[in-house]
Amino acid sequence: MRKVAMKELMNKVDFRLIHSLRRVCRSMRYFIDQHKPTIDIAKLCITIHPEHACFLYSSSGKRMETVNYWNTNFGCLVTTNRKRKKIPNMNCFQTFMNDLELIIRHMRCVTEELRVNVHSSSDDFFDLFKKILESRKSQLKVNQFSIFAKDQDQIVSILSSLYPAFLKIIRIFYHVGGPLETKKLETLGQWKGAEELDINDTHAITGNINNFTHFSCSKFRIQSISASDLNVLKEAFLKSACFEYCFITYKHLNNAHEIPEFFGLPNFVDPNNITVQRWSFKYPNSCKDNLLIVVRPNSQNIHFSRTEEKINPNFGFE
Description:
318 residues, alpha/beta, 15-stranded mixed beta sheet, 9 helices, 27% helix, disordered C terminus
């Protein structure tokens, strides 16, 4: 009877209470680990600093909770809202990873968003987190994945362990000086199945444009792009029933003079800025939708979008 009551209790408490109960005694921790209660996490944000780690999480319909882990002279200090707990002879990273493993192990529901922000030169977190993710019986079900990382391998280590069928949005924040290579990312089922892509435009990527055509919404900065690449995008977007927009900034636009060979003469040239050129192409099987393409060489950006607007060659948009 007691065991049944405990199981019922485990099914009704959230991570914060499970986290506290595991620290009551060894037998309680053993019971929780054996029972494997389901932890309902709607959003989970992980942040790693050299001397500090934290995660923010929320369950469905509840406000965000924050758990902080700090290194101190005596060990690790854990703070949750206004509560503080000292854990002697443990550093904050070890304690944090133990608790993170508990969360990931018991997450079975679909999570709206997983965010990972690592402000450390070490790969230790990614190596350990990858092992935690791979130890699960099934891949983690996440709708939106956001990551702040320094290279492609760090991103792949987590992205490859997410359930492709549930992943809809990928956001990448890249913080190292050189270009971000995306060759490995582009081979993943998670990349191929995602609908939206957003890569911060602080640094350029070196990707194959053919592997960016399936996104319905995308924004990224690319090292170089050519007139033929733009035509690849145009043809793919005209065939897509779900395409909405693609915003590209670039460092180099190769063979720009060849664009009219693929697109024809611009439908509209802004008299106030003759470098801005616009084309409009009718969507097949649609009486109102057009693919609008705007090229702005001075700003080094190109914008593709599905629109109902028509271009009047004399006055611009109607």
